[in-house]
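batch job 7 of whatever, protein = DNA gyrase inhibitor YacG
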Amino acid sequence: MSCPICNKDSVERYKPFCSARCADVDLARWMGGRYAIPAEDPPDAEEAEQILRALEEGNDTLH
C-alpha cells in the first residue's frame, strides 16, 4: 500500500502513511476543510415544520 499523500511505501507504524509528516499533512487537510464527507442536504425549514406537525398529530406516514 502506498502513502496517500506522497505515494511512497507505507510504514507499519504510520499506516496508511509513510511518516508522521504525511499523517500530519493529512490531518491538517481534514481540519482545514479540504476533505469533506458527502452528505444529504438538511431539509428546508418548511419541510421540517411539516414533518414536526405530522409527528405532533400522530401521522407517521411521512417517510
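notes: The longest helix spans residues 20-31.
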